[in-house]
């Protein structure tokens, strides 16, 4: 074992009471100090907290601090679970919303091809054919011929609010405030299980706002307590989550609230937007036609904040 790791486990622990509920976290002091100078000062600054071995942080959610704790021990953190909202049938994407799109009829003539979707294998990174082969094998077991390609489309699959198009990746650029690159590598071995991120949303009833907000809150925490690597990871994970998220019109409010949170809790930069702002601005630009149908998004654009100028600049300079 590395001598520096031995020092961590011999250094003792410190108690953090987090949020209004005073949820207690007990972490190794050396490990916390390795990642955050402000938290190091809290533990060793000679104040009452350092003498008692207990520090209180009121304005941080316990879930956010728990993700910080996961990160310092493993290099990664768990993602929140999506919610399932009840949405009326006409809100699932078919009907009035699609009538507004002039290119709807041309797209709807094409089969959606859900039964032929290729997904990456989680173990080998290889493409796995989903639908036709599995359906054929199932039909052979039951002694029935496989369904036709049109029958293989699940009848309950909702028509999207707008035609699907290839996802345009929201990447992170290098920044003068730090090296923000898309997809920091997570460690291959972690001491405890990290909950993986969920896959793409499948209908307008899938509420992914807890996922988006957990990454934004981790970013803001890392910004406040000067943890650059965690800030990079949070921005990258938000980018990855948005790249998988199909923006149904009924979910436009979720994106608008995410943007408000990001712009409220990140400082106005002197030059380029912060990496987190860049992620949400790019996603909004890529999905502008859907988002603009939301009154909340219209109000956000009409406001006096920094988002509208950033959004219009992004639209003029697409990646």
TrEMBL record:
<feature type="region of interest" description="Disordered">
    <location>
        <begin position="85"/>
        <end position="204"/>
    </location>
</feature>
<protein>
    <recommendedName>
        <fullName>BTB domain-containing protein</fullName>
    </recommendedName>
</protein>
<feature type="compositionally biased region" description="Low complexity">
    <location>
        <begin position="165"/>
        <end position="177"/>
    </location>
</feature>
<dbReference type="InterPro" id="IPR000210">
    <property type="entry name" value="BTB/POZ_dom"/>
</dbReference>
<dbReference type="InterPro" id="IPR011333">
    <property type="entry name" value="SKP1/BTB/POZ_sf"/>
</dbReference>
<feature type="compositionally biased region" description="Acidic residues">
    <location>
        <begin position="87"/>
        <end position="100"/>
    </location>
</feature>
<feature type="domain" description="BTB">
    <location>
        <begin position="12"/>
        <end position="81"/>
    </location>
</feature>
<dbReference type="Pfam" id="PF00651">
    <property type="entry name" value="BTB"/>
</dbReference>
């Amino acid at each position: 074992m590395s001598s520096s790791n031995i020092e961590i486990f011999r250094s003792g622990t410190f108690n953090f009471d987090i949020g209004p509920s005073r949820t207690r976290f007990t972490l190794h002091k050396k490990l916390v100090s390795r990642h955050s100078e402000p938290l190091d000062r809290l533990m060793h600054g000679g104040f009452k907290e350092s003498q008692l071995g207990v520090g209180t942080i009121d304005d941080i959610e316990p879930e956010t601090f728990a993700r910080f704790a996961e990160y310092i021990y493993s290099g990664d953190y768990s993602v929140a679970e999506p919610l399932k909202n009840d949405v009326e049938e006409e809100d699932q994407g078919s009907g009035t919303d699609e009538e507004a799109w002039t290119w709807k009829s041309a797209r709807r003539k094409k089969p959606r091809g859900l039964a032929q979707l290729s997904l990456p294998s989680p173990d080998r990174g290889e493409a796995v054919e989903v639908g036709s082969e599995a359906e054929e094998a199932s039909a052979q077991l039951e002694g029935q011929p496989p369904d036709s390609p049109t029958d293989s489309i699940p009848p309950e699959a909702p028509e999207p609010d707008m035609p699907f198009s290839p996802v345009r990746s929201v990447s992170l650029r290098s920044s003068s405030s730090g090296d923000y690159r898309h997809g920091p590598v997570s460690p291959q071995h972690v001491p405890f299980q990290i909950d993986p991120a969920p896959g793409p949303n499948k209908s307008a009833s899938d509420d992914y706002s807890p996922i988006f907000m957990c990454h934004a809150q981790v970013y803001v925490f890392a910004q406040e307590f000067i943890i650059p690597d965690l800030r990079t990871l949070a921005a990258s994970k938000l980018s990855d989550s948005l790249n998988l998220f199909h923006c149904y019109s009924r979910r436009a409010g979720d994106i608008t609230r995410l943007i408000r949170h990001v712009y409220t809790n990140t400082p106005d930069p002197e030059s380029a937007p912060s990496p987190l702002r860049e992620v949400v601005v790019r996603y909004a630009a890529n999905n502008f036609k859907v988002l603009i149908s939301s009154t909340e998004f219209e109000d956000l654009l009409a406001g006096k904040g920094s988002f509208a100028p950033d959004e219009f600049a992004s639209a003029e300079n697409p990646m």
